[in-house]
Amino acid sequence: MGEKVLALPRKRGLDLFRFAPSGRSLAIGAAVALVGVGLYALARESGMFAVETIQVEGATPALAAQVRQELRRYDGRSLVTVDAGVVAQHVDGLPAVRRSVVDRAFPHTLRIRVVPEVPVAVLRRGAESWLVSARGRVIAPVGLGTHRTLPRIWLPTGTEIDVGALLGDEPGALAARSLAAFVGSGFPDRITFVRALDGQITLGLRGGLEIRLGAPVDLRLKIAIAHVILPTLALPSRGGPDYLDIAVPERPVAGRNPQPAS
């Protein structure tokens, strides 16, 4: 009996042409791409998405007006061409702005959310005055006698001041940054001056009492201790101490400075 030979089924070759797009599909895809390019060009060059409104959030009316003035260059420009990062750089360059977030709100609005600098003191250099922020940035020149609720930081006459710049390593910068811990603590409206000498911070309060904070560390703890102790002290004018030393929080000391010999 002869042997039967079974033929194995042949593998079919992969028909690549089955997966290739048809000529009609290619034509449709090319047409869609051309329409997209055309619409983008139209949006760039026409007034379809022109900037008509600059909306500023989180700022005072005066600061919002400064932001809008800074961004007048974008009036009428297509939102499609506006680089949000570049806009933010322009806004952040304003001395009263700490940071900003820019949103292109189509079809016609450029929206800017602003985080303002927080003024904590008035810098004094001779007869000149400037607002300074909690991080030591010079915000703006101000008139003498204004912003009376803010403490004064006295600077040497040779100190260089540039509006919009951060103070350098001079004592005034350390004094301003130390005040950041007092924002919202109830103290700022009682402080008349801040002094940084040899890295030691001293506050002067209305009524004549000085608070010696020492090095600018553990400031919030020192503030809490001062809150507890201050109500127990008489004013210096009524025989109370003229200083409270809480440089070492565990050992607060209140006393009077020795009077000069007559």
Descriptive terms for the model:
262 residues, alpha/beta, 4-stranded mixed β-sheet, elongated
Describe this structure in words.
The chain has 262 residues and is α/β, with parallel strands linked by helices. Helices cover 23% and strands 25% of the residues. The chain contains five helices and twelve strands. The protein has helices at residues 23-45, 61-70, 84-92, 171-178, 219-229; strands at 53-57, 97-105, 109-116, 119-125, 128-133, 138-141, 152-154, 191-197, 200-205, 210-214, 243-245, 253-255. The strands form three sheets. The chain has a five-stranded mixed beta sheet with strand order 8-9-10-11-12. A four-stranded mixed beta sheet has the order 6-5-4-7, with helices on one face. Strand 11 (243-245) and strand 12 form a beta hairpin. The longest helix is centred in the N-terminal third of the chain and has 23 residues, at 23-45. 23% of the residues are buried. Residues 34-44 have low confidence and may be disordered.
The portion of residues forming beta strands comes to 25-35%
Spatially, the strands of the biggest sheet line up as 8-9-10-11-12
Largest sheet: 5 strands, mixed
Figure out the total of helices: 5
Q: What low-confidence regions span 5 or more consecutive residues with pLDDT below 50?
A: 34-44
The residue fraction in helices comes out at 10-25%
